[in-house]
């Protein structure tokens, strides 16, 4: 009876906090010159709805027979399966039969990552001249078509070009294909017009649901890949626009920038240190922080939670403002590529299920061969065993009163993330050393490590949810909610202890699955010994 009652309560909460919008994601890129640790960061929020269950899974390497096809269940888009499909991870919708996979973010076994998409749309004239193709490539397909087939980011871009030339696009999209050497930013404008740009190390970008790429140099094949007639097509169809004397792709092909998109570009650039006027006639896609201050992975986490605090453009002051941090987030993620990572390791994925404002970013490497069981629970509706619903349910309740309910939840997850980030440099060294000895055992180790962290965080989410529901039910206090688990971090602050070291570094062992499991015992904040 108790479980049934909780499910009914959560169903009601989800209905209240769910606002479906296909055009609602925000992407971020931070080149290695501008990160505090020299990593390259690619990130995005998936803002479709607060009631949109997701999974996190590993697709094993698979062989296909000649003639077998990938098929989009909604549009009829098809593409031949490769004879060998590479292993890859993804974060698909739980209900893939409803409207397709929507794999969103993942790595393959060759260290390639696809982050797709930030939806966008071309202007009416552009669409009339080159309409979208009903059974063309769309967001739901991109991760699951590209990752099993490519060994580098550039191969991925070339595959996208081949598909668009052959099949066309069903919708406008912005997405990235990356590896440790290159990050490609791609805009698909119309049915057959597109442009891709290799992002330099000294660039930073925040992009909402509108095209922003400016000049496209069709003679620079090293940095640009685009439709051969991108500029001429624009001229022929009366959409050609220049800015500062040069062709501007976004001004030519995009819809006029909406208020919600302007809100997020302005907020994101200012948050990351680049002062820009809200009413700027044109926003540059790429910028650099004015003060020269480097950007950390924690900064990007906070950007994805940002609700314009400290400005006049908060949702509380103006309900029409569209902030980067939103209850619409089904998940949010940050990918880090680091120089020391072998290509086959891929990168580090920090991901939160549900709205990141009251959820937690958990790390996993690109070479994992499995995920925690709770990530794989296929529950479209509330299910206490599902990772998505564990984190989303806690967020939904916390959002009902940010001051009284949410502040304590956010403070705990903030400390939890800080502990994980502080530990990551040591974990990186262990994993890199183990990769040099045995890649299969390294994958077993990183898999167990990620599962240990995820399971621990989920146990904390369950506890906080239970305590918060009890706190609300009592309704007899003017004191804000403080989760009991917060005491473990407060105790650490009062002591001289530091983040606990891994008991036995994998590189110093034979690295069997058993020793890897032992080594992960202290790798994540645990109930008994979490540290900051």
From TrEMBL:
Annotated GO MF terms: cysteine-type exopeptidase activity; dipeptidase activity
Signal peptide: 1-24
UniProt xrefs under Pfam families: Peptidase_C69 (PF03577)
Annotated segments matching region Disordered: 492-532
InterPro entries on file: C69_dipept_A-like, Peptidase_C69
Keyword entries, A-Z: Dipeptidase, Hydrolase, Protease, Signal
Domain of life: Bacteria
PROSITE patterns with a match to the protein in the record: PROKAR_LIPOPROTEIN (PS51257)
Regions of compositional bias (Low complexity) in chain numbering: 497-532
Biological processes, Gene Ontology terms: proteolysis
Enzyme class: hydrolase
EC number(s) reported in the record: 3.4.-.-
Reactions this protein catalyses: an L-aminoacyl-L-amino acid + H2O = 2 an L-alpha-amino acid
Family under the similarity heading: Belongs to the peptidase C69 family.
Protein's name in the database: Dipeptidase
Organism: Butyricicoccus pullicaecorum
């Amino acid at each position: 009876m108790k479980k049934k009652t909780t499910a009914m309560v959560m169903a009601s909460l989800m209905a209240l906090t769910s606002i479906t919008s296909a055009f609602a994601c925000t992407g971020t890129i931070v080149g290695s010159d501008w990160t505090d640790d020299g990593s390259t960061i690619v990130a995005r929020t998936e803002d479709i709805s607060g009631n949109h269950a997701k999974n996190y899974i590993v697709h094993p390497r698979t062989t296909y027979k000649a003639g077998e096809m990938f098929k989009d269940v909604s549009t009829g888009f098809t593409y031949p399966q490769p004879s060998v499909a590479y292993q890859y991870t993804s974060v698909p919708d739980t209900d893939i039969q409803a409207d397709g996979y929507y794999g969103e973010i993942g790595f393959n076994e060759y260290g390639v990552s696809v982050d797709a998409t930030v939806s966008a749309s071309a202007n009416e004239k552009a669409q009339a001249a080159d309409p979208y193709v009903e059974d063309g490539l769309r967001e739901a397909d991109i991760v699951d078509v590209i990752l099993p087939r490519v060994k580098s980011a550039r191969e991925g871009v070339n595959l996208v070009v081949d598909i668009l030339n052959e099949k066309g696009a069903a919708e406008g999209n912005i997405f990235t294909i990356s590896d440790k050497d290159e990050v490609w930013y791609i805009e698909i404008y119309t049915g057959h017009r597109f442009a891709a740009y290799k992002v330099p190390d000294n660039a930073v970008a925040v992009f909402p649901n509108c095209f922003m790429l400016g000049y496209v140099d069709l003679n620079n094949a090293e940095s640009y890949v685009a439709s051969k007639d991108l500029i001429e097509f624009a001229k022929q169809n009366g959409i050609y626009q220049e800015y500062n004397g040069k062709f501007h792709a976004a001004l030519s092909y995009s819809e006029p920038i909406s208020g919600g998109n302007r809100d997020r570009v302005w907020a994101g650039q200012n948050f990351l240190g680049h002062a820009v006027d809200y009413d700027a006639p044109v926003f540059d896609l790429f910028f650099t922080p004015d003060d020269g201050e480097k950007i950390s992975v924690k900064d990007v986490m906070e950007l994805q939670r940002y609700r314009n605090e400290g400005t006049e453009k908060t949702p509380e002051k103006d309900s029409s403002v569209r902030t980067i941090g939103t209850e619409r987030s089904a998940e949010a993620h940050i990918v880090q590529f680091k120089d020391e990572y072998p290509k086959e390791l891929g990168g580090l994925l920090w991901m939160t299920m549900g709205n990141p404002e009251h959820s937690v970013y958990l790390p996993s490497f690109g070479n994992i061969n499995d995920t925690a069981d709770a990530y794989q629970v296929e529950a479209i509706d509330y299910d206490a065993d599902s990772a998505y619903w564990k984190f989303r349910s806690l967020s939904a309740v916390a959002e009902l009163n940010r001051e009284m309910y949410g502040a304590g939840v956010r403070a705990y997850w903030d400390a939890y993330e800080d502990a994980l980030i502080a530990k990551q440099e040591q974990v990186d060294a262990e994993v890199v050393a183990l990769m040099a000895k045995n890649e299969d055992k390294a994958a077993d180790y990183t898999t167990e490590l990620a599962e240990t962290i995820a399971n621990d965080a989920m146990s904390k989410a369950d506890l906080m949810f239970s305590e918060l529901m009890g706190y609300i039910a009592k309704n007899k206090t003017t004191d804000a909610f403080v989760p009991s688990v917060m005491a473990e971090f407060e105790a650490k602050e009062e002591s001289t202890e530091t983040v606990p070291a891994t008991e036995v570094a994998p590189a110093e062992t034979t690295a069997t699955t058993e020793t890897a499991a032992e080594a992960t015992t202290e790798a994540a904040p645990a109930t008994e010994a979490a540290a900051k």
